[in-house]
């Protein structure tokens, strides 16, 4: 399993990881076309996770989720999100018993194509150390 701090954008499903769901945004759309963005984290980093369809109601904050064959890439809003994709699978494997950090947030990093290989993305700069969609509570 890969740690969240080690994920990089890619166009293929191959990320196997585990994280805790910290917060969920509102559901947008209806039926099978609905989606919502969530904040998830492990002990190394946080990232925005995109749920689709029935996944929006299937998971709640505090759930520990195992992602198999996930993808970290652009969503419709041109932001990087981790998601199961068509061939991946997100499943609940526990609740509340996982250490986590909220920084760095891998979705708040500006990723650019590597000048030597346009199929690989590299970190250009940090947009924000924490989630701008789910700001930390003080």
Automatic annotation (TrEMBL):
<dbReference type="InterPro" id="IPR051231">
    <property type="entry name" value="SOSS-B"/>
</dbReference>
<dbReference type="GO" id="GO:0005694">
    <property type="term" value="C:chromosome"/>
</dbReference>
<dbReference type="GO" id="GO:0003677">
    <property type="term" value="F:DNA binding"/>
</dbReference>
<dbReference type="GO" id="GO:0044818">
    <property type="term" value="P:mitotic G2/M transition checkpoint"/>
</dbReference>
<dbReference type="GO" id="GO:0000724">
    <property type="term" value="P:double-strand break repair via homologous recombination"/>
</dbReference>
<dbReference type="GO" id="GO:0010212">
    <property type="term" value="P:response to ionizing radiation"/>
</dbReference>
<dbReference type="GO" id="GO:0070876">
    <property type="term" value="C:SOSS complex"/>
</dbReference>
<protein>
    <submittedName>
        <fullName>SOSS complex subunit B-like</fullName>
    </submittedName>
</protein>
<keyword id="KW-0238">DNA-binding</keyword>
<dbReference type="InterPro" id="IPR012340">
    <property type="entry name" value="NA-bd_OB-fold"/>
</dbReference>
């Amino acid at each position: 399993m890969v740690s969240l701090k080690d994920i990089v954008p890619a166009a293929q499903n191959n990320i196997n990881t585990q994280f805790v769901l910290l917060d969920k945004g509102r559901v947008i759309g209806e039926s099978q076309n609905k989606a919502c963005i969530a904040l998830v984290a492990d002990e190394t980093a946080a990232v925005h996770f995109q749920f689709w369809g029935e996944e929006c109601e299937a998971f709640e904050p505090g759930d520990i989720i195992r992602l198999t064959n996930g993808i970290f890439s652009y969503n419709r809003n041109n932001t990087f999100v981790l998601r199961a994709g068509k061939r991946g699978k997100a499943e609940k494997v526990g609740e509340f018993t996982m250490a986590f950090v909220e920084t760095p947030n891998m979705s708040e990093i500006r990723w650019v194509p590597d000048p030597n290989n346009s199929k690989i993305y590299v970190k250009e700069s940090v947009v924000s150390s924490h989630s701008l969609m789910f700001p930390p509570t003080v």
